[in-house]
Design brief:
CATH topology of the domain at 1-104: Serine Threonine Protein Phosphatase 5, Tetratricopeptide repeat
Low-confidence stretches: none
CATH architecture of the domain at 1-104: Alpha Horseshoe
InterPro entries: Ankyrin_rpt, Ankyrin_rpt-contain_sf
Order of helices and strands: HHHHHHHHHHHHHHHHHHHHHHH
Keywords: ANK repeat, Cytoplasm, Nucleus, Repeat
Number of helices: 23
CATH class of the domain at 1-104: Mainly Alpha
Subunit structure: Interacts with AARS; the interaction is direct.
Helix content: 40-55%
ANK repeats: 44-66, 78-110, 111-143, 178-201, 212-235, 281-313, 314-338
Largest sheet: none
Subcellular location: Cytoplasm; Nucleus
Mean pLDDT: 96
Length: 371
């Protein structure tokens, strides 16, 4: 078979054209069938069986296995089996057939992902139940330390999460290699209903930290998920004053991520001090916002009572930080608000830190150069 003929077979498989596919393979005799059964295509190394399973064409899957003689456990360059493909795309009929034909339910692809993990990314409960009924182990972990439950909590389908807890009640007692729990992950992605289930049915301790000292509440707030944050505060007694490993608290973290609503929530609803310091060099939220170039956050911080003239332990103002980050808009705003350039403890002005042309031009527009 030449390349054009093989490409035609791929297209027919992807389009679900069984009769045409069968005709093309049969016309080439036993040699054609042998070629097809062992042929891997493209960079991915997929076979026709991979394509058929991925697109959910059960009749072609059955034909390739029964008539062409393809191995149900054939794998591509990422070690994905046809079962991975069918599970990841939510094709229950193909999943069921492949399992009946002897596919290994917990086969591992690259990065140690099982078909059940792949199914959990698609939130397809029927496929997940099928895999579990055939003995899939939801406690297996991939190279990052995530099990299927962890993945399900990221995707946020309450029915999938509840079913996994029903089948394996202690599946929640897991953490990734960076010590992140499913609660961290659900909070980070704003999966409110899943967070509620985890708080009701699992035994997570309040303010459990990952390897960076981040709590689920921090994950929720710095990603702007206020309703999840309220849930963690009210139902889990999470601490609004916890700090991560570098000493940054919630108000500093939202200044970095640019979450204006979360910032107002912290200061107005939780009465958090907008000028509180972080790290050994005593940075404030205004320093962080300026370094990230978040002009709207700078404006909101000042509206909420931030000290425009505050300095860190090195004598640097927010203007220094804006120039360190090379953010012309932030530097311009701070100058317009009345923050004058001045030397830090080492004798360096913010202007001296400006490297990009647009940041340099900010200081050439008539604003005072030094105090």
């Amino acid at each position: 078979m030449d390349d054009s003929h093989l490409k035609l077979l791929v297209k027919l498989t992807q389009d679900g054209q069984l009769s045409s596919l069968e005709e093309q393979i049969t016309s080439g005799g036993s040699a054609a069938a042998q070629t097809v059964s062992s042929k891997h295509f493209g960079r991915s190394g997929d076979t026709l069986l991979h394509y058929a399973a991925r697109h959910g064409h059960l009749d072609i899957v059955e034909y390739l296995i029964k008539c062409v003689g393809m191995d149900v456990e054939v794998y591509n360059n990422d070690y994905k089996r046809p079962l991975h493909e069918a599970a990841s795309m939510g094709h229950q009929a193909c999943v069921s057939y492949l399992l009946r034909e002897g596919a290994s339910v917990d086969s591992l692809k690259k990065a140690d992902w099982t078909p059940l993990m792949m199914a959990c990314t698609r939130r397809n409960l029927d496929v997940i139940q099928e895999l579990l009924c055939h003995g899939a182990d939801p406690a297996l972990r991939n190279k990052d330390g995530w099990n299927s439950f962890h993945i399900a909590c990221r995707e946020g389908d309450p029915l999938v999460v509840q079913h996994l807890l029903l089948v394996t009640p202690d599946v929640w007692t897991t953490e990734s290699k960076t010590r992140r729990t499913p609660l961290h992950t659900a909070a980070m992605h704003g999966c409110e209903e899943v967070v509620r289930i985890l708080l009701e049915r699992c035994g997570y301790t309040p303010d459990s930290t990952d390897s960076c000292g981040v709590t689920p509440l921090m994950d929720a707030v710095r990603n702007g998920h206020i309703s999840v944050a309220r849930l963690l505060l009210e139902n889990h007694k999470a601490s609004p004053t916890a700090a991560d490993k570098v000493g940054a608290q919630l108000v500093h973290q939202v200044a970095v991520t640019g979450q204006e609503e979360a910032l107002r929530f912290l200061v107005q609803d939780l009465s958090i001090d907008v000028n509180q310091r972080a790290t050994d060099i005593q940075l404030t939220a205004l320093h962080y916002a300026a370094k990230e170039g978040h002009t709207s956050i700078i404006k909101t911080l000042l509206e909420l009572g931030a000290d425009l003239h505050v300095r860190d332990k090195k004598g640097r103002t927010a203007l220094h930080m804006a120039c360190i980050g090379q953010h012309a808009g932030a530097a311009r705003m701070l100058l317009q608000l009345g923050l004058k350039d001045s030397e830090d403890a080492s004798g360096t002005t913010a202007r001296q830190l400006a490297k990009k042309p647009d940041v340099i031009r900010v200081f050439e527009c008539g604003f005072p150069d030094t105090s």
